[in-house]
Write a structure and sequence with these properties.
It contains nine helices and eleven strands. The strands form two sheets. It has a seven-stranded parallel β-sheet, sandwiched between helices. Helix 5 packs parallel to helix 9.
Length: 245
């Protein structure tokens, strides 16, 4: 299956990561060949991919935020949970995983993939159903970071059981005042952070499967955070607990 990746950074990162098959590059007529566009063309030349200059209107039909470039590529290459654990072992690091329980918004998924990649998370787990997946819109929202992240679709309950068997602590983010304050929880060891959906939070079975529920400190009048913001804050705090290594 093929799809169109649009936007300069997303196209560049798809080509740089080299995890997908790439088939052709479209460039809008009149686009200046410099900066990121020049980087893209160098990678395309190295791969000997066909390049076609087309009217901007043709790219507009792919997506209005194309920034003058679009790449025809194979669909996103999903990984598996063992791949993530192997990556952590290969880096000689304690596993740091992100579990997203039925997150719906592509922008939120893209943001969390971008944060996860930046902090060096070893992978992201999504359920099989009722979730945003790694579409071109998510690749764009992540600014291409999705191409460097291992993402798997799994049965979350089974995956959580497997993580526990591997000695990985599963911690769910909750706004519930009964959840443990973040400052009382050690995030430095093998860890899987669970973020629930935008409206309902974690499903009951997933919540019950967590070893610990934690809440982020808040002092303002608004008592909740956007799912992507909360997950990103928690990922940075987990990275900080590892001394930003």
């Amino acid at each position: 299956m093929r799809e169109w990746i649009y936007g300069r950074n997303p196209v560049y990162e798809v080509l740089k990561a080299g995890r997908r098959g790439s088939f052709q590059l479209l460039i809008a007529q009149g686009t200046q060949i410099k900066d990121r566009v020049a980087d893209i063309l160098k990678l395309v030349k190295d791969e000997r991919l066909p390049v076609e200059q087309v009217p901007r209107s043709k790219l507009d039909r792919i997506h209005t935020h194309h920034q003058g470039v679009a790449l025809e590529a194979s669909s996103y290459p999903y990984a598996a949970l063992p791949d993530m654990l192997h990556l952590a072992e290969e880096r000689d690091e304690s596993p740091l995983l992100l579990i997203l329980d039925t997150l719906q918004d592509p922008q939120n998924l893209g943001t969390l993939l971008r944060t996860g990649e930046i902090v060096g998370a070893h992978g992201v787990l999504l359920p099989y159903r009722r979730t945003a997946t790694v579409t071109p819109a998510v690749v764009n929202a992540s600014s291409g970071a999705s191409e460097h992240m291992l993402v798997a679709q799994v049965n979350l309950a089974q995956a959580i059981t497997e993580l526990k068997d591997q000695g990985i602590w599963v911690i769910g983010l909750e706004s519930d005042p009964n959840a443990k304050p973040l400052e009382e929880v050690d995030l430095s060891g093998p860890l899987a952070l669970v973020v629930g959906s935008e409206g309902q939070g974690m499903r009951a079975l997933v919540r019950k499967s967590c070893d610990q529920l934690i809440r982020l400190p808040m002092r303002g009048q608004v008592k909740s955070l956007n799912a992507a913001v909360a997950g990103s804050v928690a990922l940075y705090l987990a990275w900080g607990a590892r001394s930003y290594k």
